[in-house]
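Tutorial handout. Part one gives the primary structure; part two gives the three-dimensional structure as tokens.
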Amino acid sequence: MLRSVRARWAGALGVVLVAGGAVVAVTWPGEQATPAAAGAAIEVSRSTCGAGWTTPKPGPQTLQVHNSGAASTEVELIDPATGTVFGEIDGLGPGTTRALPVNLGDGGYAFRCVPDGSSAFVGPTVRVSGGVARPGPAVVPVTDADLLGPVKAYHGYVLEGLGRLVADVAALKTAVHSGDRARSETAWLTAHLTYERLGAAYNAFGDSDKAINGRATGLPGGTADPGFTGFHRLENGLWHGEAMPALAAVADRLAEDAGALRDGFGDAQIDQNDLGLRAHEIMENTLQFELTGRADFGSGTSLATAVANVDGTRAVLDVLRPLLVTRFPGLSTVDTWLDRTKRTLESARRPDGSWTPVGQLDPALRQRVNGSVSQLTELLAPVAAIAEPRRIR
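Part two.
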């Protein structure tokens, strides 16, 4: 489950791309912008974009871009002939200067500026020479229109998954009411993993996500708090010996919440910005919560959840694939690591089908699990920047 949702990449966050789509520099929210150095910065505003960049040079370098206007501005360094993006600064505030690391090959370059509340416009073209050919394709901008198909496809995937969820939770409810704890535990895992595969849609679920899959963290009464509901509340009761009749009401509530989510999701909107961002964050949260055992309320199935998260990540990449295949040279490597990570996680499954709790893993396997998930998470990082919708006019 995606348990920490970052805000949209806006304001103080800047992601820099180089040819081939690799992320080479990030400015995180809260970082202080530096004052403009006299005569050293490239100027942008509502009326100018790239003023002062008159002697471009080839090779690795850091450009200083200063916003002399009164509105926050998105700034991209592009090939004016094709619109492909070599670097960007997102949300350059008025009166501030930010560094833009780039590696320039021979060819034409221009800045494209999108001031808040205004249309995009492109500044003068400059030409770089005396260096080397560009090492690879830059990132072709993804627009809102480009993302309509992927968002629609993912919406359909989630609707289908919610249908399975309702059926799986109904089976779980029946098992709990029967009083059979072992049967209930098996049904719980099936239903929980179905939910975990829907990771990129949690933001669209609103309060339903907390009700269905929230944790006890921050609740005044902890696991005994009346506000602790859903899968983890049921997990806590099943694996800690709570009387089965007392858990029937918890299962009933979960079934009601799952049905309400399924019934209401048809008109829900998945934010186009979420798809690329969630592809990375699903695995980032797997590292933070599943591989540390922080989301385990007694079942010891965190690694099964991690496998479901890998499946959920793959589902996001599959709908984005038509856009990524020509923009992200690392896509095949990501596919390889998705397979490798899933195999590594599944090696923690015992012959009887149960899962080894994270804390009981053999040290060598624990190291392989952590390493595989970490590597996959790192490889997924560029997807958010590449798939972020951009205004080009």
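Part three, for discussion. Residues 144-387 form a domain with the A middle domain of Talin 1 fold (CATH 1.20.1420.20). The longest strand covers residues 59-67.
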